[in-house]
Structures are given as C-alpha cells and as structure tokens.
Amino acid sequence: VSRQLKEEIRRGFARLEDPLAGLLAMLESSTDWRGKGHSLGYCITTELQLWIKAHPAGPQSGTKLKKLQSRALGLLSQCPANLLDPLISIYQLHTLDRNCLLEHVSHLYLQGNYKEAALLSIKLKLQPDQDVEKMCTPLLLQDKANLVEDYVAEYPELQRKLLQTLDTWCEPSFNIRDITRPYQGLSRYKPEKFNRRVLSKLVFRLLQRFNVDPALCPNVINQQHLRTLKYLFYKRFVEKTMTEENWADHIQSTVGDSRWLQAQLVQLLLRHCGARGAARWALHCHLPPETLPRAVAEELHNLHTQDRVEEVTKADNYESSKKKDYYQLPIPRENIHFLQTWEEALQCWEKVLQPGQVVGVDMEWKPSFGMVGKPRVALLQLALREEVFLLDLPRLLEQADSRGEKEKLPRFIQMLYSDPAITKLGYGMSGDLSSLVATCSALKDMEKQMQSVVDLLAVDKQVDGPSPEHSQEQEKGLRQPEKGLSLLVQHVLGKPLDKREQLSNWEKRPLREEQILYAASDAYCLLEIYERLCKDPESFGLSSDLTESLVGKQSKKPKAKKQLSKQEASSPSGQECQGGRTEPSCPPGPISPQEFSVVCDTMLQGLGRYLRCLGVDVRLLDNEDDHRRAAEIARQEGRVILTSGFPYQTLRSQVGEGRCFSVNCSEKAKEQALQVLKHFNVQVSLGDIFSRCQ
User: Fold this and answer.
1) CATH architecture assigned to 335-465+483-550
2) Which backbone phi and psi does 424 adopt, to 5 degrees?
3) The whole model's pTM is what?
4) Which one of 250, 322, 501, 540 has the fewest CB atoms closer than 10 angstroms to its CB?
C-alpha cells in the first residue's frame, strides 16, 4: 500500500465521528473485500487497527458496542481469513458472551458452513466447549485435514479425543459408511479421500506432530504392525533377502504379546511354511498353544526340540554355503572391534584422527517400518585399512550422560568430519547425517563445517554397469537384482554385498555375528571401492580426472546445506535412499525443473501439483493405483519416486539408490517441495513458474 493511500485513509478516519461504525458500513456495502488477497477493504481495516492504537478513544457505551459487535460478528462468516484477526481485535469480539459466540458458530455449522465455523472457533478459542468429532468430521470429508490439525493444535485433550475417534473408525469391523451417510449432500465432498488408508496416515501424522503416545491408537498401530509382518514375510520367503535369525528378531518384536497379531502371524506362517513350519515358528516365538489352529497345535505337540535344532542347523549350513557368492572382508575377524566403553573409544579416536587417514563411515539403526519417531543411530562404523571399529552409540551416550560429559561424542564426530587432512568416505551420507543429528542434537550444524567428505553415491551414477549377459545370468540364478551400494561393490570389486542383515534390529544386544560382519563390510568396502576407482577410473567408464576430483579437491569446504532431518525421519526403513549431495568430491551441478522428472505416490498429490506449478515434470498416481505402480513408471520413464511412510519400504527396493525419496507427510506441500528441490539441487527460475500450465 502506498504511503499516500495510507495517509488518505487515516485522514478519513480522523474526519469520522464514529470510525468503527464507518468501517462496518463500508464493508457491508462493498464486495471488494470478499476476494482473496490484500483488497482495499483489507488495507482500510488494518490501517484502522493501527490508527485506533495511536488514537485511543474513551470506552464506548455498552449498548452501542454490542450493536457494533453483533454487526461485526455477522461479517466474520463472509470475510476472508486475513480479515478475521483485525475485525476481532477492533471490535473486541473475544469479550462477547461465550454462549452468544458458541450459538453463532453453531448457526454457521447448521447452515453447512463447516470451514467458516471451524476458523471462527479457532480465532475465538471456542474449541474446549465444542464436540471435536462433530466439528471435524465434515472437514475430513471435504479433505481439510490441515484445518482439523489447526483446530486441535493448542488443546492436548482434544488431540487425544480426535485420535481416539479416528482410531475407532479404523477398526476392521467398523463401517465407515455410518460416518459418511449423514453428509451425502455435502458440497466439495471427497469420498475417495475418506478411507482407512488415508485416516491411518492422518493418525500417524497427528501422533508425530503432537508427540502423543501411539498406544492411544491400537487399531491403527496393529494394522501397521500387520503390514510390517506381511513385508517381513515378503523379504524372507519371496525376495529371500533376510537371514532367518534377523527375520525372527523382527517378527518377535513386531508381534509382542498381542493375541490378534499372534493369530495373524500363524495364518501367514501356514500360508508360507505349512503346518509343520508354522508349528516350528510358533515354538520359536513362544506362541500360546491355545491360540493356534488345530493342525498347527498337533504339529507343535509332535515337534521335538531336536528336530527343531536339526532344521535350524540345516538352514544355517545352507546360508553359509551362499556366503561365497558375496563380498568378503579381507581383514581377519579379530581386527573388527565392537566398542562399548569410553576407554575403548579413546583408543579408536587415536587411530582414526591421524592426518592423511582415509576412513570408511557408515551407520545402522533399527528400521521403524512406518511407525512414529525419528531413526536414532545404534551403531557407528569406522573402517581403516587394517581394522574396523563398531561404536555402540546408545551405550556410549548413556555412559557419557552418567558422567556429565555429553559433549564427548559430538566433539569427536565434529573433529572427524571437519578435519581437512582426513578423508571420510560414505554412500548416500545425507540420510546418515540426519539420523546422527536425531541421535545427538549437538551435531545439528555439523554439515556446515564438513571438509574432505567423499560421497560415493555421486560417483556411482557415473560408473558403467554390467553387461546384459551378466544381468541375464543373475536372473537365471533366481537372485534379486543388486541395487545401491551392493551394485556398486559388484561393479567395482566383482561380488555384491550380502544385504540380508540390512533391516536388522540394530538396537538389540548382543549383536549377532552376522550383524557384526555385515556392519564391518558395509564400511570397509568403501575403502576398497575408493582405492580402485582412484587407481583406474577409465576401466569403469569414468573420466581420467576423477582422481583429481576425488583426492585433490577435498580440502574445499562444501556448501552449507540445510539439514533435512524432518524428511529423513519419515523413512520407515531407517536406510534412506538419498540423491547426490553437494560434496567437494564430485559436485553435481544444479538442474532446471524441466530436467527433473518425478512420479508422486497417492498421498502426495498436493506436492505433485505444487512441483508442476514450478515447472517440474510430474506424474501423479490415481487414488485407486497400487503404490507399486510408482516403481513401474519410475523404471520405464527414468523418474524419481516421491513417497512417504510405509510404501517407501517396498518402493526403494525396486529402483536404484537415490531414486526413491521419502517426504514428510506432516509438512504442507510448499515445505515438501522445498525439501525435494534442495535435496536434488533443482534451481527454479521465474520463467519455470507455470511453464507447464495450459
């Protein structure tokens, strides 16, 4: 608003005998202010608000003020959201009788103005005196979940009531049509947005946003656990990419003492293993015999412990025979050190923090399988040429806390990452660093100080792949195609990584021997890849100046990049697939939106539309599409998958590393888009905006 206009508005107020009545008369007779944006009516209203502060008048008579308040209240249901606060302030509507305000909002509700009723309730703080289910149900039917979140944002008791209501609707025996039936004639009703899947996602979003105990929503949590069970069965019996012990660990921790989940487990076991196999696992998982089907219970009765031991031994022998097909650590087992005390850690630091040292860095954490919470690092692996150190972070942090020395661990990690004389190797390090920050908040600014960091994910995209004959041979061998770091290890070192321990429970102690070997291999292989690529880049289809870019420029400080902790925390697997970071090793240049192609999963249609407005090539899944359709499109058209929550587990295994990105559903579309653009280094110009619109 120009200074001249502001001055003219203020002079007008000064000439009026009653500026409050004058503003109402203007708004009641004009339609200009009813549109979106900063209309003339909005400018006049906000200027009056400032003018009143500068020229306080004597108190108005009660009767006169009440008449003005009544007229102002009538305007609130018609005015845009940006006028609510100024009008409430100018006419002191919060001082009106609360029953009068509630009656006005109820009248709006009965007229079908559900959004306006909710907005006014929020502004006047009427929520404690309202029925949260009644107020929020029509908003959810109109796909206004963000308004529902705002409605309960400041009231923990209402948050719990809303979550309990949503959880009741997600109960398998509940008929959702009982909720929708009274609202069949609702304007802007979106029935496709009101189903158990969408409601479950909303529940998880609310649990995370408001930090509510998930135990409040047993139906949603059990359904999520059931999806986790089905995923684990797929990994073990279809993909065959999990060891038996690893699988059993997750099965037991997922099922727990829930009788319902135990029954679901038995049905899955029957389908995949038969009655005898189901009985063996029922014994292994300590399932109560009375919960088992008759055929399984009979097998359990006949099953002897010796039979079980023999079967497990056979399985172990079979799996050990497969190990020769995978990358093997070239150092002896005694050179792998599992460190749980600060005395041991100090010896590790002395060896790692040496000028000229090259360190392979990796981290492991327990997969969350779509549950609420940020992944916390359970194991930090540091590989040197002759030995590997596995740091038990939870134990070390606990010891430091008990001694009042919380700064010990972050100080060591910061020294390591900021030292330009030490080369740090990683693969997709952005996800690791985000989880490290979630584990130790003192490291939140570390990424700005990092030097001499080489993310081999950026190099991986340039490495020539295997010949078609090799791929066909792998398919004939019935082994899942390699991807990510495992594929890079196969290209460069000849054999892939054995990833069957990747989804282990890394918080459980003691670690199994297979976990220790997997963790050490994951970090150590980075050293061998780095050495091989630097010595002979041409044989892998890389430019001859790769050595200079990897070795000679590492003292440069990388560009500071905002930590994407919120985004990476939504990853259910705890192993985030990241795109290339801006590293000093091989910095990927910025790309335009026209060069960036994505496919958005069903729950991210708002994000997809926002990115399309910025010029990004976007494909949106339809509501009825299966999540796996995203992987088909991504492979066929070379697109990056944008997804969130549990589907990330399945989709990331069907595309290459860095080609599946997990978005935080608790953010709005604009914040989600900013995360995606920053992560993939997409630079938007003015000419890109709306460039794809008709």
Assistant:
1) 2-Layer Sandwich (3.30)
2) -105, 125
3) 0.64
4) 322
